[in-house]
Specification:
single chain, alpha/beta, TIM Barrel, two-stranded antiparallel sheet, globular
Length: 315
Amino acid sequence: MDHQRLGDSDIEVSAISLGSWLTYSGGVGREQTEACTRAAFDAGITFFDTANVYGRGAAESAWGEILAGYPRDSFTLATKVYFPMGGRDRGLSRAQIHKQIDASLERLQVDYVDLYQCHRYDDDTPLEETMQALTEVVEAGKARYIGFSEWPPDRIQAALDMPGVAKFVSSQPQYSMLWRGPEAEVIPLSETNGISQIVWSPLAQGVLTGKYRPGEQPPADSRATSRSMNRFIKDWLTDEILEAVQRLRPIADDAGLTLSQLALAWILRQPNVASAIIGATRPEQVKENAAAAGVQLSDDTLAAIDDAVGAVAVR
């Protein structure tokens, strides 16, 4: 498993990381969660990403119990804050950041997280208040570093220009062959300022695995048919997109890869990407996806990928 430094920090993260968004927050049972986590360690994955809102604390609690069986210095742990945890518990105010980091640490059964991320930008809280609170969390030793997810570029720059506060070292954007929005502004801005990308949904919620075929019903055991996990996948399930994904199949075959490995290797070709987050429901998926680390795609393969899906990709 390849590892890469996360931005200007001294954290080394595994190129493939394990996330818990729609899976370990309730879509997958405890036994499967533990099996996937064990498979991750076996495959060399040492970076685990979660958030307080995933299952309203359920994902953090599950990993708190499971990761307690591993030495704390054997893994890198990231969580997030912003989305509602209750009637008034939401956002990035100073009070909320301090309340939520303490609750997350308790559920995760750790004294600190390696990375504390703002899950979205909070238009209702002054940026100065948010950044000062995050700095206090770092100074208190509750988080080693801070990051953001899906912030507008001008707000990222404003935070970077602010004196006397902790500096962001990571960005967590949606990024895949089918969703290339970060390439325009976020990645160039990050490269200039010592910030790395930790990519979510690199497989477009499983669509880039090729399991969904145009004109056919989704497999019965897939995310698309799970009421607890299918809320966001529907936009990807158009025949035009699914036909484009099927055009990737011979490209993957020629490269000696599965479609999942091809999609992950495409993400990891980008130098500013430190890690791609996978959301596995079975241990064999973890093993398959981990094998994408270190794969080098040829220029011909990259050109063929663009020919296959470029027309349907969001930029």
